[in-house]
Amino acid sequence: MGLQVRLRWLDELAQDVRYALRTLRKAPAFTATAVLTLALGIGANSAIFSIVDGVLIRPLPYEDPDRVVRIVPLRVQHGETDGTFSYLDLQDLRARTDIFEGVAMYDPTEVVLHGEDGAVRVEGAFVNADYFRVLGVRPALGRFFLPEEDEPGSARSAVISHALWQSRFGGDPGVIGRPLSPGSSYTIVGIAPADFEDPGLNRGSRNVPQVWASTPAYWTRDQWAERGMRFLTAAARLREGVTLESAQAAASTLMRRLAAEYPDSHAGWDIRLVRLKDRIVGPVRPALLALSVAVGLVLLIACANLANLLLARAAGRRRELAVRAALGGSRGRIARQLLTESVVLALLGGVLGVFLAWLARDVIVALGAGQLPRLAGVDVDARVLAFTAALSVLTGVLFGIAPSLRAARADVNAGLKADARGGADRRQTRFRAALVAAEVALTVVLLAGAGLLVRSLASLYAVNPGLEADGVLTFRLSPPFNGYETDARVHALYDRVLEGMAALPGVESAGATNILPFSGGYWRFSFLPEGRPAPERREDTPGAEIRTATPALFATLRTPVLRGRGIEERDRAGATPVVVINQALADAYFPGEDPIGRRIQLQDGVREIVGVVADVRQFELAKPAEPVLYIPFAQAPFWLTSNAYVVLRTAGDPMALAAAARGVVRELDRRIPVSDVRAMDDVIGATVAAPRFRTTLLSLFAALAFTLAAIGIYGVVAYGVAERTREIGIRMALGAGAGEVLGMVVRQGLRPVLVGTALGLPGALAAGLLLRSMLFGIGPADPVTFLGVPLLVGLVAVLASALPARRAARVDPVIALRVE
Questions:
Q1: Distance (Å, rounded) from C-alpha 215 to C-alpha 107?
Q2: For residue 451, which phi and psi values (nearest 5 degrees)?
Q3: What's the Rg (C-alpha) of the chain?
């Protein structure tokens, strides 16, 4: 009996689906509108889900990834940092606790590969033998590092990424045992798997040319024995059965012991253990969740729109539905038929939505490149298809259930009357107005969120970076140690480079510095103004970022010299050691004083302050400038000048000179790789890529919601005019003027909009509070945004109501009152 019931139910469902397809085919305009609306809403949700799934949900491609943790140093009084550890600290974590199976040590670096076609620089890292074992990966070819290769002076081995193996070595399996490049002291011992995601180097990126090297030559036993020599980042694998909480307690206990044993270097330090996945994706989780909520609201608005469309369509089908009821169709059967039509519509929208999601995914990945980790794992795959199918069915039920039930409960006698179109159903009119109010409320929330991010981004772009980026070309040089092992040789090289660059047509000036503004790098050192006592605690010693500068650097970047002078040609090796400071350092350490002529003690000796320059933002526009000391390039030691950025101010498009600049370097020494060739505008632009990414997407979703809401307002008003044609005709026959009718229709159209706006503003304020951490220069209740959004919604509501209102005002009373 149960089988027969199920078979009959399936047969009825098949009938409902066939009937739904025939019905939808007879109303192509309605079907196309509904399917496109759904495709936009479902496609946007599927695209964002593919990003969220690939970045946040999927586990890291390591063995037991939940047991892999990042070890983060923590200053008790200053909060979490991205600092580093000494080698002995990490050895103690491995030897004096019983919580880890292994501790991976990581020191990022750059590797220069030489070949017949010149030199190329690739990202790399020095790692210990535990590194790949902690991550639980196996080589695609060869082996990973051995424990004995951790010792200074041991054989130098290298593991290369699958991408580098393919691009540089043509996928030749015979590369194992060969030197990394001609003349290199490192031997290739293994190839990493193609899907390996390096958590330290590229925030979980894969398929990137990379090199991992064993213990570097410059690591000495003295460095390894120095507790204060912090230069390693670390991750670890928890032992089987050890919880994160118990491991955290054991690590903190060890740090307290070390602070007691070594108070000079460890007082006030602690450790925080963070799951590696949380460390990689944690910074982008709020933005992705905010975008997920935004596309969810867009889908709800689309559902409200379609519910209105279905109600209007059901009103036009009242006679058909009444006939079916009169012939014995039950209310439940009719409701199920209508609900089936809604689900079929949603599935059709889902099919088109998958295509739109596939297109949108590529756009989102392009926008998020460099800002979102793990993008290589993002795809419209079976998981996304399953999500889209489930979302389509849910959407069909969501927007279809209310219209289906209301249509099924309609009065059969009223539906069979020939004049059933003569007046509007007040309950249905109120319900449709409520749907419009809900649409408007959700739209106000989205518009306010997008408006806040747009205003925040505008405030960010308005920040003075301390330089003029237009027309500036930048690139990095990495001279080999062989041939450039002394200060004099390095300085002579850059003199020749800058001379050659300045001679290029279109180059106005050329300079060099060790750290390019907005590049993210830093060298921070302690200093002490002469005549001031040294602080009792080492952590209270004044510190500043160290920059080198050639004489033309400030002029090339157009960074103003505020007092004194900049770096000049006379500031060479052997001349009086001088330094130029920025305004932030002057304000912090010489408040109310003229620092020109003052002397400060640095690690390399005493230097005289000869100038003060404007602050240049070093990391990003949102962060204030740090105190900076500018040392003349020709007076700087080798380790500050061996790798440097060259900046050229050009008269036209800076990238047009990239090839010529490479040629100058190649003529001087083809062993020197030229990398990071970018326009300065792009360098600064990369620092605002994250806020630009979330602002762009949220603005697109808000614009989509706004368009849907405007269509919804227009549809409700237009349908109301059509339903009240006879009433309007009677009013005009009794003397109502066109202006009076026009005002009446517009007022009735604005009523649900005003209600929706009032309901949406508290939600908009809540959204602003949730977005507070993403805002710059404005508050979560920014008055410009919260005044502009209601005005914009009201203006569009008036325009959306005006067209059907004008049509109503032109109704001919004679035609309107004619009996059908």
A1: 10
A2: -60, -40
A3: 34
Determine the distance from the C-alpha atom of residue 645 to the mean position of all C-alpha atoms in its chain, rounded to a whole number: 27
Number of neighbours of residue 136 by Cβ within 10 angstroms: 17
SS3 for 153? Answer: coil
CB 630 within 8 A of CB 568: no
Helix axes of 689-723 and 426-461: crossing angle, nearest 10 degrees: 160
Q: Which two three-digit tokens encode residue 4?
A: 């027969």
Residue 819: pLDDT above 50?
no
Per the structure block, which two tokens stand in for 479? 């001279």
| DSSP string covering 341-368 | HHHHHHHHHHHHHHHHHHHHHHHHHHHH
Amino acid at 3: L
**CA 256, 260, 261: angle at the middle one, nearest 5?**
115
Residue 420 tokens, joined: 């059933």
Backbone φ and ψ for 142, nearest 5 degrees, come out as 75, -140
CA distance linking residue 650 with residue 305, whole number of Å: 54
Q: Measured between alpha carbons, how far is residue 193 from residues 29, 133, 331, 379, 683 in Å?
A: 52, 14, 61, 20, 32
Q: Residues 152, 224: contact at Cβ < 8 Å?
A: yes
Cβ atoms of 613 and 559 within 8 Å: the answer is yes
* Bridge partner residues of 631 (DSSP): 548
Q: What is the pTM of this model?
A: 0.82
CA angle 512, 514, 517 (to 5 degrees): 85
- The torsion defined by the Cα of 420, 424, 426 and 432, in degrees rounded to 10, comes to 120
- What's the CA gap between 546 and 627, in Å, rounded? 9
Question: Is the Cα dihedral 626, 627, 631, 637 positive or negative?
Answer: negative
How many other C-beta atoms are found inside a 10 Å radius of the C-beta of residue 451? 23
Q: Give the CA distances from residue 670 to residues 11, 119, 241, 497, 656, in Å, rounded to whole numbers and listed in that order.
A: 77, 7, 55, 13, 21
Q: Phi/psi zone of residue 574: left (φ > 0), alpha (ψ -120 to 50 degrees), beta?
A: left
By CB neighbour count within 10 A (0-12 exposed, 13-18 middle, 19+ buried), where does 806 fall? middle
Distances (CA, A) of 53 to 58, 209, 289, 794: 6, 25, 11, 38
pLDDT in tens, 553-571: 999 999 999 999 999 999 9
| Residue 24's pLDDT band (cuts 50, 70, 90) | confident
Contact by Cβ (8 Å): 816, 729: yes
| Angstrom distance (rounded) from CA 71 to CA 251 | 10
- The C-alpha angle with vertex 106 and arms to 101 and 112, in degrees rounded to 5, equals 145
The residue type found at 398 is: L
Q: Are 400 and 339 in contact (CB under 8 A)?
A: yes
Strands 628-632 and 269-275: unpaired
The predicted-structure confidence for 446-480, as pLDDT tens digits, reads as follows: 999 999 999 999 999 999 999 999 999 999 998 88
Give the separation between CA 396 and CA 339, rounded to whole angstroms: 8
- Which pLDDT value is given to residue 404? 66
pLDDT for 473 equals 96
Q: Structural domain boundaries of the chain?
A: 1-62+284-422, 78-267, 427-459+688-820, 479-672
Backbone angles phi, psi at 398, to 5 degrees: -65, -50
Dist CA 118 CA 477 (whole Å): 13
CA 180 from chain center: how many Å? 35
Least confident span in 93-107, 146-160, 304-318: 304-318
Residue 366: CB atoms within 10 Å: 10
Cβ–Cβ < 8 Å for 756, 439: yes
From first CA to last CA, the distance across the chain in angstroms is 51
DSSP-assigned letter for residue 461: H
Separation of alpha carbons 767 and 295, rounded Å: 14
Across the strands, what pairs with 675? 476
* Paired tokens of 724: 């009240």
Cβ 191 vs Cβ 160: under 8 Å: yes
Residue 82 confidence (pLDDT): 58
Instruction: State which H helix or E strand residue 316 sits in.
Output: helix 285-316
